[in-house]
Each structure stands twice: as C-alpha cells, then as structure tokens.
C-alpha cells in the first residue's frame, strides 16, 4: 500500500503556528535575558516616607551614597512625606517588585495602619535588613528655663495644656511618645504635629514650641553644638554619647520607646534580588565612610537580617495594637 501523502497545511493555520512559535521563542529569550542581567543594572530608587533632613532621610541618603559607590549604579532617595508615613509606605509597597524601587520603612507602617491613617501594613513588604535603631529623647532649647526633666514636668503640671511639644506628625511614633508620657504622668501637653522630624526640630530651634520629641540622630548634633538641651531619653539605659542625660525610667516615668529604619522591597520581589540586596547591606555596613557618618550624626548603626526581623515586627505590631487601643488613638 502506497504511503499516505501529507495533508496540505491551511495557510492561515500555518501562519498562526509560526506566530505562536515566534512568541514562545521570544518569551524564552526575554526570560533568559532577564535571568542573565546582573542586579542592579540601572539606578535604584529608595522611597523615604518622611521629609528631607530628618533621621530617616539621613539614614537613607547615607545608605544610598555607600551603595552607589559599591555597585557603580545610582541609588536615589525620593522623599514622599505625609499622612504619618502612609503615603510613602503605600507607594513603596505597590511598586513593581523588581528591586528598583525600595522603601526605608519606619514603625509608622504599623502605627498609621492601626490608627486608620493608611492602608499599608508591615506585612506588605519583604525586609532586606533593619539598618538603624534610635531611642526617643525630649529636648528643649539650650536657653530654656528648664534644666532637668523634673523642672519641665513641674512646669507642665502647673500649666495644663500649655507646654508645647513638637512631633513628626499625628499618629507618628513621636506623637505616640508624647501621649504615652501624658498617660504615665497625668500631664496634658499641647502636642504640635509637623510633617516630619526635621520640621519639628526646626520648630523648636525657631522658638515655635517649648520642646520636641525626636531621636538622637535628629537632635544629637544640636545638643553637642550647644543649641539644644536633652532632658531625658526613653531608653533602657543611658546613652554612651549622652551619659549625663537620665532615662525616663530613672525619673520614675516608665516609658521606653524608640524608632527604627529598615530597607524593604515589595512583597513579590524575587528571592535572588533580595539576596543580592542583603549582601549589599553587609558590604555597606562595613564601609568606613558610612560608619563614620552614623557615628558623627549619633545614629544607631545595626544590621539585622530581614528574615528574623519579620518575627520582631509581628510582636511589635501586637504591642502597637495594644498601645493604640489603650491610648484610644484609633479613628
């Protein structure tokens, strides 16, 4: 029996098959190219949810400067202040998960969410590393009439609602610190919100308020320069660079609060990109210029792996949930 002749191909069907094959081959080529492309291959943005000049901005710019020198690619800081960090956190979480838009996350990612200010929460990110932790301090101008924490609280007690304290924004960590201080002492302050720590400190320096709550990284230089006086720190023990300043606990005020900054990426960021970023943080942390900047600015230098950090943030979120409910801050 003669062999069966092949059926002629319908022209339109053949064109469809050729197109599908071409698309498939193109997809494979693109996939291969994406895998082969080193990261970072172009500039990287770091969103800071706070104003220029604050502690978060300083930490991000120090990291960006070191990362640029070490990788040869530009790391660019983009400030997105407002809504107690919610605007910047939301933009960062919603970014394309390719490693080219990162976020300098702060505790307000939980605080703003719990208070109904923002929709983004801490679990919407993959964490590369926590790179800074600083205790919160109460400061006044160097020529203020209060030389001690007791003198300031005595003034506030005799002038209810008149002692004004600036903070970095409604619902932010420093605002929480002020409210916690009120609850622990029975005092009432005039809490004045600014759009970030830098404007809050400038408000104090310019005489707009009586005091400010901020971190050592934001006020330390002004204290050492003789412009501000630090009355107390909300830390477990006294600080090495400010060992003459008592803790609140020493003055029978049981308040311990700090703030931190962590480099994070959108939740769906590929594991290889996260691994590369973690290696980069390790290198940056050892960079002498980076370390010198942190020491000079009185910023707390840490390098806490993002994987382990998630468990801590889960516990911290529970703590903030209790605090927000107890202080009746939820909207």
From TrEMBL:
Keyword Zinc: no
Swiss-Prot/TrEMBL keywords: Signal
Domain of life: Bacteria
Signal peptide: 1-36
Glycoprotein among keywords: no
Any Pfam family hit: TctC
Family designation: Belongs to the UPF0065 (bug) family.
Protein's name in the database: Uncharacterized protein UPF0065
Organism: Verminephrobacter eiseniae (strain EF01-2)
């Amino acid at each position: 029996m003669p062999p069966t002749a092949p059926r002629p191909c319908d022209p339109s069907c053949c064109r469809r098959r050729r197109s599908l094959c071409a698309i498939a081959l193109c997809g494979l080529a693109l996939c291969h190219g994406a895998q082969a492309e080193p990261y970072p291959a172009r500039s990287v943005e770091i969103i800071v949810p706070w104003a220029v000049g604050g502690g978060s901005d300083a930490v991000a710019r120090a990291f960006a400067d070191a990362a640029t020198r070490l990788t040869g690619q530009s790391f660019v800081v983009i400030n997105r202040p407002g809504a107690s960090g919610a605007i910047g956190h939301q933009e960062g979480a919603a970014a394309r998960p390719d490693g080219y838009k990162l976020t300098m996350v702060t505790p307000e990612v939980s605080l703003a969410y719990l208070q109904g200010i923002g929709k983004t929460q801490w679990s919407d990110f993959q964490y590369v590393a926590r790179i800074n932790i600083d205790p919160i301090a109460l400061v006044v101008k160097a020529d203020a009439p209060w030389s001690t924490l007791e003198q300031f609280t005595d003034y506030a007690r005799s002038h209810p609602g008149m002692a004004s304290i600036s903070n970095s924004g409604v619902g932010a960590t420093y605002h929480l610190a002020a409210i916690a201080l009120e609850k622990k002492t029975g005092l009432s302050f005039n809490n004045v919100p600014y759009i970030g720590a830098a404007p809050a400190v400038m408000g104090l320096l310019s005489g707009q308020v009586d005091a400010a709550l901020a971190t050592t990284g934001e006020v330390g230089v002004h204290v050492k320069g003789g412009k501000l006086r630090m009355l107390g720190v909300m830390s477990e023990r006294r600080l090495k660079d400010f060992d003459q300043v008592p803790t609140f606990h020493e003055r029978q005020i049981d308040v311990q609060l700090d703030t931190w900054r962590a480099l994070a990426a959108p939740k769906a960021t590929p594991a290889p990109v996260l691994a590369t970023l973690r290696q980069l943080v390790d290198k940056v942390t050892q960079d002498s210029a980076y370390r010198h900047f942190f020491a000079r600015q009185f910023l707390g230098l840490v390098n806490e792996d993002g994987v382990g950090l998630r468990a801590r943030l889960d516990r911290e979120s529970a703590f903030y949930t209790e605090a927000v409910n107890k202080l009746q801050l939820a909207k």
